[in-house]
Amino acid sequence: MSHEVAPTARPLSSHQDLNAQELQRKGFKAYQVDTAVNSGPVYRRRDFYKVALVTSPCAVHYADRSIELNGASLMFANPHIPYSIELHAPRLTGYSCLFTEAFVKENDRSESLHQSPLFKVGGTPVFHLHAEQATYVQGIFQKILAEQDTEYLFKNDLIRTYLQLLIHEALRMQPTESFVQHRNASSRITALFLELLERLFPVESPGQALPLKTAQDFANQLSVHVNHLNRAVKEVTGKPTTAHIAERVIGEAKALLHHTSWSTAEIAYSLGFEYPTYFNNFFKKHTGTTPLAFRRAT
Questions:
Q1: I need a labelling partner for 42 at 20 to 30 A (CA). Which of 22, 82, 91, 236 fits?
Q2: Whole-angstrom Cα distance, residue 233 to residue 236?
Q3: What is the tens place of the pLDDT at every residue in 44-53?
Q4: Residues spanned by the domain of 198
């Protein structure tokens, strides 16, 4: 059974014209986006971080939420959270920059991009721009496009500076509550747990089983006692560790059922269930329906 999205949905950019190996080697690629809508599946893991200026009306769909973009918007994406774009216009237009963390962090020992409010789990990845902001951001993208084709010896340093300008422009618009300050050990261990949980997804192949499945698994990975982890997560979020794991597994299960043709047995294995019946019972417990019934209804 094939579960492709409607023909009106399309990834933010087509990678068909990009050489992935070259991009990995150089660590950076910028391009102007102007593409017609084509059919095809849209949820996929991106291998690179992305900053994009979207200038055509569309909706960004994540596994657990959707964001409508009307007018110019600045969008940030990381390689761990899949998303799709549904256009509300004949063409997708704007600018896009793909880059690796190694490129942007070269000679920089500051915190990982995973910790940035713009790329972290639960952050605000899309910013709506007013006319003055849109003009400023478009100017930066145009400078990046022009610079990447020059022979300037230090062009990578200059491009990194332009990227930082885009990041800081968004940070200025970021709500202050999104800047998480870890007040205590519980807050920090909870943040590490949530980041580790998110890094497990998306599952990309039926033969790839989740390496961490229980609170004990996560505690071992974080080098803390499982009771300490459970107390910290419950204190900070109000929900048990197992609830966070279950919610994320259910979210991934729904995405796989809706956007792939994998069998339920393959999905069960990829999500760490020894037998399909265990997966069926788990899914029904948390959703009130069976995996097959959910798939038929979507």
A1: 22
A2: 5
A3: 445 678 899 9
A4: 185-297
